[in-house]
Amino acid sequence: MSVRASMFLHVLKRGLLGRGNRPLIAFIALTVAATMITAMLSLYGGLENKLNRDFRSYGANITVAAPDGQRLPPDALTRAHSAIGSDAIVVPFAFAIAHTSGDEAVVVAGTEMDQVRRLNAWWSVSKWPSGDDQALAGSRAESHLQVNHGSFDLDFAGRSLHFRQSGTVKTGSDEEDRVYIPLSTFERWTGIGASLLEISAPGSRDQIAADVSQLESALPGMQVRPVRQLLRAQGAVVSRMRSVMLASTLLIALTVALCVFSTLTSSILERRRDFAVMKAIGSSQATVNALFAGEALTIALCAAVLGYILGSGTAAWISQANFHAVVTPQLSVLPLVILANLALALLAATVPLARLQRIEPAGILKGE
Amino acid sequence: MFFRLLYQSFRRQQRRKLLAGIAVTLGVAVATAMIAVGVDVGDKINRELRVYGANIVVYPEDAALQVRVGDQEVKPASPGTYLKESTLPNIKGIFWGHNILAFAPFLETQVQGQSGPIRVLGTYFDKQLRFGTEEFSTGVEKLYPWWKVQGTWPSDGSTDVLVGSQLASRIGKQAGDSIDLSGVSARISGIVSTGSTEDNAVVAPLALVQRLAHAPDGVDRIYVSALTKPEDPFARRDPDRMTAADRDRWYCSPYANSIAYQLREVFPAARAEQIRQAAQNEGTVLSHISGMMLLIALASLIAAALAVSAAMATTILERRQEVGLMKSLGATASTIASLFVCEATLLALGAGILGFLLGDLIAQRIAQAVFHSGVAITPVLLPMVIILALLVTIGGSAAAIHRALNLDPVLVLRGDV
Questions:
Q1: Distance (Å, whole) CA B242 – CA B263
Q2: Which residues between 54 and 113 in chain B have a beta carbon less than 8 angstroms from any beta carbon of chain A?
Q3: Which residue in A329, B95, B388, B389 has its CB near the most CB atoms, within 10 A?
Q4: Residue B143 near chain A (CB below 8 Å)
Q5: 8 Å CB contact between B265 and B94
Q6: Which of B108, B280, B354, B371 is the mutation pick for testing A, counting most A CBs within 10 A?
């Protein structure tokens, strides 16, 4: 290493470490900037996924229905899964009109109970059925079923079947008028197959739209429909929140950056005597600039790394506290944060250095 | 003398004061804007979620079960009772009437078409109603903004109808044709597609269907879209088993359950229920979004406070020489400290108010750009941010003032420190 280079490094080191905790303020300011930028970018990146996941709790976002009076092909479930992936929840439904022992008509639906439970977590169910002969009664249908000691009879086309009622379901819509029984029991009893698939596909509005066309080609002749009101609400909320987050990120980044800028500028201006001494004993303008810039960049780099760690922590905390989801730090944010911090530090150093160059060292040293 | 020092400090050190002032202004502005947006975003998203449709349904207590599978439908022996159309405007009169964004009544009947029975749904499209002195319009155009109509929406007073897209292609009709509904010749003003059961029905003005069903003033169901607060354990309690104070609090909170309860008071012998799919899930989305925005507002508050403190500390450290000079001329530490604290206070007050106004402006711009409506900023926020600005500015300066006072004036004035 040449003498010049080692001298340069020595002065740089003393400038960073030999001035007590003076560089600390600049370091803190830059760390705060990096922390906020990291936290906001991480949250912004993960937001869409989390909101899309929230909207899945509404239940089905696609329905596949057989044309009236027909049934779905027997392998519809597997075909649907292979068309849109195994992440999707696919629940088959079959419907028939049965008669109670009081000869009242009621709609009976056959379905897979554990899947419905996953799909429609918003159903308010007192107790889910667990056996083949257990039935879930809609809260409005219940009073028509002539339930006797927790069980009731239903008649379909002359074949009567005995059910035990496991609980009631409240939803505030059509489900309350029906009786839900396991699909296998339903098919054995009525001989009618599933005519409807309710599907909850993961992802954004566009991905769901793509899934719809996948399903159309996998199940020709069936009516594949997106649940339009849900997709519309999802699209509106996700895009609004994306804009709000973007605006907030820019606003916070800009503010913190300006505060950092004023801090760094002052701390360099404060050292005009150092600057003057160096020039007076013969160092070139370029060396002095490089020294001050080197100092600022070193601080900025360290602050970026620390800020990245703190910011990832903040983002993880916010996600955990709010969405109850674990968030892994996003590595793609790191280069962006380092770059932003370096640019900020360099910019903040340029303005005062340009000002100092115009002043004679002698003037500064005399204290003018 | 003290005031002259204070005055001169602001007059002569304009650059420093400007930098510190900018820092405080921006810090307060970002805090104000984030809090304003964070508090308001829940309400805004709530409105966006209402495009989903109704979240409360009202129907007669003894309504018959719906027994329909596809085309097959079993009509109950007795037609059941109806709600009264004439009481509909009273919906706006409930305690949370202002939170009712839209509602639409429905009456269903069947007519014989050439190729089998046709379901006919009567409703409001965009009906003008009046409650007291308040004029408003409501109907499915507002309630279900996702309904797609090819052609035009019928007017509520006419005998124009919409035909569901599947039904239209089955019976070979299109917009502009006319359709015979039990002897009434109705003009098809448009083809409606909803992705749901309406695609297989005729949607007609309520008055027309009341005539077809021989049910004057009758309504089967009312769907209501209301702005509600996410449900919590308190909301799920039974109001009839609460203490009077709890009941008042429950009644005066815009929960889906309490709005349903108030609707029941308007329609005797009716049931009003939350539609759980809409009500429960929008609660999840809403609480997540407003929770996140509040946490972000909190984080940006802390960040702004740190950034401002750093800026304040720098400006004070720069003035060591001044402190040294004052000390050597005989000023006591408390005089010097109070001078700096006064400076910081003036700065915080001025920049705080400016920052509040700026933050207000920024929040309005964000809300306008994203949601096309402004935000309401509570005046309580002003004293809050001013106190915050004072704390941060004085707090940020305190350590630096302490350091400056501890330095030996001799060394400082020689420039050795």
A1: 19
A2: 56-57, 63, 65-72, 74, 76
A3: B389
A4: no
A5: yes
A6: B280
**Cα gap A196→B86, rounded to integer Å:** 39
How is residue A209 written in tokens?
């739209």
**Per the structure block, which two tokens stand in for A186?**
């339903």
Collect all residues of chain A within an 8 Å Cβ-Cβ radius of residue B284. Answer: 54, 57
Provide the 10 A C-beta neighbour count for residue A124: 15
Considering only residues A189 and B116, tell me which one the structure prediction assigns the higher pLDDT.
A189
Question: Mind telling me how many Å the CA of B252 is from chain A's nearest CA?
Answer: 22
pLDDT of residue B77: 62
Instruction: Note whether A307 and A33 are within 8 A (CB).
Output: yes
Most confident segment among A10-19, A251-260, B30-39, B297-306? B30-39
pLDDT digits (tens, 9 = 90+) for B321-336: 788 888 888 888 888 8
> For tokens 């009101």, what's the residue?
A229
Identify the three-state secondary structure at position B297: helix
- Residues of B with CB below 8 A from A56's CB? none
Nearest to A267 among B76, B279, B314 (CB): B314
Q: How far is B297 from chain A (nearest CA, A)?
A: 9
Instruction: Pull the structure tokens for residue A127.
Output: 């107790």
- Please state, in angstroms and rounded to a whole number, the distance separating the CA atoms of residues B356 and A92: 56
In 3D space, the residue among B105, B86, B91, B83 whose CA is nearest the CA of residue B134 turns out to be B91
CA distance B111 to A226: 30
Q: How many Å lie between the alpha carbon of B132 and the closest alpha carbon of chain A?
A: 30
Tell me if chain A has a CB within 8 Å of the CB of B298.
Answer: no
DSSP string, A326-337: -----TTHHHHH
Interface membership of B261 toward A (CB under 8 Å): no
pLDDT at A151 over 80: yes
For B295, the token pair is 């946490």
With a cut of 90, say whether residue B369 has pLDDT above it: no
Nearest to B318 among A97, A141, A270 (CB): A270
Residues of chain A contacting residue B273, judged by C-beta atoms under 8 Å apart: 170, 172
List the single residue in A with minimal CA-CA distance to B196: A227
Ranking A43-52, A255-264, A300-309 by mean pLDDT, the lowest is: A255-264
Q: Which phi and psi angles does B322 have, rounded to 5°? A: -60, -45
CA-based radius of gyration for chain B? 33
Q: Is residue B126 within 8 Å of B142, Cβ to Cβ?
A: yes
Please tell me the predicted confidence (pLDDT) of residue A257.
82
What ipTM score was computed for the predicted complex, to two decimals?
0.81
CA dist., res. B95 & res. B394, Å (int)? 47
pLDDT at A156: 92
Cα B9 to Cα A131, A310, B128, B344, B347, distances in angstroms = 84, 38, 66, 11, 12
pTM of the model: 0.82
Chain-chain contact of A95 with B69 (C-beta, under 8 angstroms): yes
- B70 with A68: Cβ contact below 8 A: yes
Residue B161: in which H helix or E strand, if any?
A: strand B161-164
> What is each CA distance from A302 to A23, A28, A343, in whole angstroms?
12, 10, 14
> Could you read off the pLDDT of A171-188 as tens digits, one per residue?
988 899 999 999 999 999
Contact at 8 Å (CB) between B348 and B386?
A: yes
| A68-105 residues labelled b (16+ CB within 10 A) or e (exposed) | eeeebbeebbebbbebbeeebbbbbbbbbbbbbeeebb
